[in-house]
Amino acid sequence: MSKRITVAIDGPAGAGKSTIARRIAHKLGYLYIDTGAMYRAIALWALRASVGLSDMHRLEQLANEAIIEFVPGTNAVLLNGEDVSEAIRAPEVSNAASEVSLVPAVRRALVRKQRELGEQASVVMEGRDIGSVVFPDATIKIFLDAHPEARVERRAAESSLPPDVVAQQIGERDNRDRARAESPLVQAPDAIYFDTTGLSIDEVEAGLLKIIRDRTSNGKERTH
């Protein structure tokens, strides 16, 4: 039986984590886990249930009770059996998720769920505390980064917001992520730093696949 492989990809907003993690998982035949989607799912449930974002007790209950699933080979995210892949991307859910992620009890509940997912199969998991908190013993740890200007340009291209607004949002998100007491955004000591500034998505993919293949004999690319 082949050993389960855990690829942990951390980094700030706009570094390209979701796109590259999804592609890497597909190439290797691993399960892709977007931890940000898990916080978005809790935020969506809270909004639907009219739970206040300051009600830490109820938010903890939702996080503990939520059944969050990722469908292999797709981008689908299920919350309690419902496909919420599109719903969790709504602007109001994104804003709420940023608040929900600050609640220590919510983070602890979702970290438990993330570890359970990682115990079931080889995974590519991306977020902000995967290599430092969720899987400190991950097979491969990568810290994906980019210059602030490049990150703003990428996020602005994905939305209809002007660059100055995106820059402010990313700056605020960076400050929250790095300053929070529970699982702050940090580069794990043994993580490989990878700067994506000026690189195409194909170049980033090739670079990360090389790192993974150098670290494990199981990183064979799928041919279909």
Instruction: Quickly count the domains.
Output: 2
| CATH class placement of the largest domain | Alpha Beta
Shape: globular
Number of helices: 9
Percent of residues in helices comes to: 40-55%
Mean pLDDT: 89
Gyration radius over CA: 17 Å
Oligomeric state of the chains?
Answer: single chain
Computed structural class: alpha/beta
Query: What name does CATH use for the topology of the largest domain?
Result: Rossmann fold
Distance separating the two termini: 22 Å
| Beta-strand content estimate | 5-15%
Give the biggest beta sheet. 5 strands, parallel
Largest sheet: spatial strand order: 2-6-1-7-8
Q: Which CATH architecture of the largest domain would you pick?
A: 3-Layer(aba) Sandwich
CATH superfamily of the largest domain: P-loop containing nucleotide triphosphate hydrolases
SSE pattern, N- to C-terminal: EHEHHEEEHHEHEHHEH
**Extended strand count:** 8
Q: Flag low-confidence runs.
A: none
